[in-house]
Amino acid sequence: MGQSSLSTREVTLSQSISANSSAASRIMDADFAKEQSESVRLQILKQTSTSALAQANMGPQSALGFLG
């Protein structure tokens, strides 16, 4: 094997390592975005349920207000 062949393989291997690192980074970014999206979804559900509960609790008080 000549020096040129080894240099070509080294460049190819270096490019492969760089591509794999890049792919791993994109996967981690996608995982983070998915988790962040899920967190926002859960916060919205919590706020919605809290609001619904508050409105449900106001119902009986409103009915009593009409009677009294």
From TrEMBL:
Keywords: Bacterial flagellum, Cell projection, Cilium, Flagellum. InterPro entries: Flagellin (IPR001492), Flagellin_C (IPR046358), Flagellin_C_sub2 (IPR042187). Pfam families: Flagellin_C. Gene3D superfamilies: Flagellar export chaperone, C-terminal domain. Coiled coil: none annotated. Residues 4-67 form the Flagellin C-terminal domain. Belongs to the bacterial flagellin family. This is Flagellin. It comes from Gracilimonas halophila. The lineage of its organism: Bacteria, Pseudomonadati, Balneolota, Balneolia, Balneolales.
